[in-house]
């Protein structure tokens, strides 16, 4: 009998960067594997990570995940991992070259969106993003509120219907 990667009905997402969609306009998303130590995997499965300050940088033909805090594993030993260390991302060379060229354009950055399980492998979803200005954020909030109002009115009309 095959072993399930996640419990029935549960989300395989281990960590999510909720601020990313508010702070950035996500243009494209990509998936990459992450080179991790054993205690990092256990800490991620415990949900002890922070993606908010994280970013991806392309250096010397390699992609690196920086600024992500994976807390030390509480039941780890003296060779426990460093919480703020650089982690290499596993991408194809063409993807790295493409991303390097896009980031060289003014105003684009690579932002981690979520860390999740896929067939018992830990993956990172990150986005090619452009920073939003204050008025962009206000506009997005106004659109979201307008959508909620419309949904509320249609739901009320259907109930009374």
TrEMBL record:
Keyword RNA-binding: yes
Gene3D superfamilies reported in the protein's UniProt record: 2.40.280.10
UniProt-listed InterPro entries: SmpB (IPR023620), SsrA-bd_prot (IPR000037), SsrA-bd_prot_CS (IPR020081)
Keywords in alphabetical order: Cytoplasm, RNA-binding
Chief location bin: cytoplasm
A GO cellular component annotation in the UniProt record: cytosol
Gene Ontology BP terms: trans-translation; trans-translation-dependent protein tagging
GO molecular function, one term: RNA binding
Domain of life: Bacteria
Subcellular location per the Swiss-Prot or TrEMBL entry: Cytoplasm
One Pfam short name: SmpB
Alphabetical list of PANTHER family matching this protein: SSRA-BINDING PROTEIN, TMRNA-BINDING COMPONENT OF TRANS-TRANSLATION TAGGING COMPLEX
Recorded family membership: Belongs to the SmpB family.
Annotated function: Required for rescue of stalled ribosomes mediated by trans-translation. Binds to transfer-messenger RNA (tmRNA), required for stable association of tmRNA with ribosomes. tmRNA and SmpB together mimic tRNA shape, replacing the anticodon stem-loop with SmpB. tmRNA is encoded by the ssrA gene; the 2 termini fold to resemble tRNA(Ala) and it encodes a 'tag peptide', a short internal open reading frame. During trans-translation Ala-aminoacylated tmRNA acts like a tRNA, entering the A-site of stalled ribosomes, displacing the stalled mRNA.
Name under which the protein is recorded: SsrA-binding protein
Native species: Candidatus Amunia macphersoniae
């Amino acid at each position: 009998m095959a072993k399930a990667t996640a419990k029935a009905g549960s989300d395989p997402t281990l960590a999510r960067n909720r601020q990313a969609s508010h702070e950035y306009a996500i243009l494209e998303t990509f998936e990459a594997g992450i080179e991790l130590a054993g205690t990092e995997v256990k800490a991620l499965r415990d949900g002890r990570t922070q993606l908010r300050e994280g970013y991806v940088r392309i250096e010397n033909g390699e992609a690196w995940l920086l600024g992500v805090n994976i807390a030390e594993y509480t039941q780890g030993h003296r060779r426990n991992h460093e919480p703020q260390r650089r982690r290499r991302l596993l991408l194809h060379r063409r993807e790295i070259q493409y991303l390097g060229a896009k980031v060289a354009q003014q105003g684009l950055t690579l932002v981690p969106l979520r860390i999740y399980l896929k067939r018992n492998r830990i993956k990172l979803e990150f986005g090619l993003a452009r920073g939003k200005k204050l008025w962009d954020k206000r506009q997005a909030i106004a659109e979201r509120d307008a959508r909620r109002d419309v949904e509320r009115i249609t739901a009320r009309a259907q109930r009374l219907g």
